[in-house]
Amino acid sequence: MIPEADFGLVDAHIHLWDTRSFDLPWLNAVPQLRTQYTAAEFADGLDGVRLRAAVAVQAGNTAAEATWLLSSARAASALTQAQIGVVLQYARSPDRPLSPWHPLVFADGRFPQGVRLPLVELPTDWTALGGIQELVGYVEHHGLVLELLLRPDQLRAAGELSARHPRLTVVLCHLGLGENEPDGTWQNEIARLAARKNVAAKISGLHTSHPPVPEDHRRARLAAEWALEQWGPDRLMFGSDWPVSTRAGRYTDVLEWTKQALGASSPTELQAMLGLTAASIYKLAGSEPDVQIDKR
What InterPro entries would the database entry show (predicted)? Predict the structure, then answer.
């Protein structure tokens, strides 16, 4: 068992939702998750793990859900004694350009930590779609994080966008892998993307089957090892992907599996990936960013 880092655990990727209050159509594919995963369920699901901070990523794309998520993040913070940041999600309608459907500034005047673009159902060259550049410019201007949910064939476009916006902090969700194999094509695209110093990534979403089989752990280890080789610990972050990860195991299981996938890492490297890097990138836990994304 690898000891916890002195800084504390920062989970860079959780979700909260309640399908009694709003619909999430993508849950049709995973009906076992079509229920409520509120602040209380999250606090209970930690199984005693102490968090310093976490990032709650919006799972849908409505204003009502965004308002609910902000309130729920505050409730989760009170229950866990951890700072809970929020990343809002923007989805592009098929009949109009991507455009804001709710204000980026919350009622109390705060900005969210970032904005996520879910792009897996869009073309390979998604950067050419109407509204993308305007939104990216807005996110960059306000110093927010741009999160990208991508397929492997969309990674090259992410690198090109990052090159055009060197002062933009870009974070790749789930290593851009989805349920694909970390094959040579994916490795080449990851190496190319990681060469952009303003891009970081989350080691998340790698364990999805229940119960996990040796093949799942092999796949997670190969993906994590390659990501660490390309990005280094100062640009990689642990994300549990709770509650999606509950299909595979408990919170403590996912945390331990991630540590095992990063087993060759030193204690200092683990401290970065399990806490410091996410705290710095998302400006959480009172972190003065000793670990920084290079925006030169």
Answer: Amidohydro-rel (IPR006680), Metal_Hydrolase (IPR032466), Metallo-dep_Lactonases (IPR052350)
Pairwise CA distance, residues 132 & 130, whole Å? 6
The CA–CA distances, whole Å, from 59 to 23, 38, 42, 93, 276 equal: 10, 13, 15, 16, 25
Report residue 68: phi and psi, to 5°. Answer: -60, -40
Determine the Cα–Cα distance for residues 114 and 160; give it in Å rounded to an integer. Answer: 20
Residues 251-288 pLDDT 10s: 999 999 999 999 889 999 999 999 999 999 999 976 54
Number of domains in the chain: 1
51-57 vs 199-203, strand pairing mode:
unpaired
Alpha-carbon gap, residue 236 to 222, rounded angstroms: 15
The arrangement of strands across the sheet holding 51-57 comes to: 9-14, 51-57, 83-89, 114-118, 145-149, 169-172, 199-203, 236-238
- List the CATH number of the domain containing 221: 3.20.20.140
Q: Is the pTM of this model over 0.85?
A: yes
